[in-house]
Amino acid sequence: MYIILVYDMGEKRVGKMLKLCRRYLNWIQNSVFEGELSELQLKELQVEAKKIMDENYDSLIIFSSRNSKWLDKQIIGVEPNSLDNFL
């Protein structure tokens, strides 16, 4: 499934969450990631994220779709991290 993940973490936890999300998804912009994950990978990401988070203070928002072709993506201005860098 296609995932867009957005998080807002306290300063002490933001670095750990960044590293975790980069293991599973492609970085788009500060605290925003996208990519294809299996249901198992998504569950693993959620479990690991909950270990990092303070659920009374931090937030993690996950948008999912069965396929990326069902989403329209518009970029206005500079795209910080182009996904077209495959060799």
General description of the model:
The chain is an alpha+beta fold. The chain has a single domain, classed as Alpha-Beta Plaits (2-Layer Sandwich), CATH 3.30.70. It has two helices and four strands; from the N terminus they run βαββαβ. A four-stranded antiparallel sheet has the order 2-3-1-4, covered by helices on one side. 14% of the residues are buried.
Concise summary:
This protein has 87 residues and is an alpha+beta fold.
**From N to C, what is the helix and strand string?**
EHEEHE
Strand order in space, largest sheet: 2-3-1-4
How many extended strands? 4
Radius of gyration: 13 Å
Mean pLDDT: 87
Q: Please mark out the parts with pLDDT under 50 across 5 or more consecutive residues, or reply none.
A: none
What is the CATH top level name?
Answer: Alpha Beta
- What name is given to the CATH topology? Alpha-Beta Plaits
Estimated share of beta-strand residues? 25-35%
CATH architecture field: 2-Layer Sandwich
Distance between the termini: 24 Å
Rough outline: globular
Total of DSSP H or I helical runs spanning 4+ residues = 2
Structural class label: alpha+beta
What is the count of structural domains?
1
* Helix percentage: 25-40%
Main beta-sheet strand count, sense and barrel state = 4 strands, antiparallel
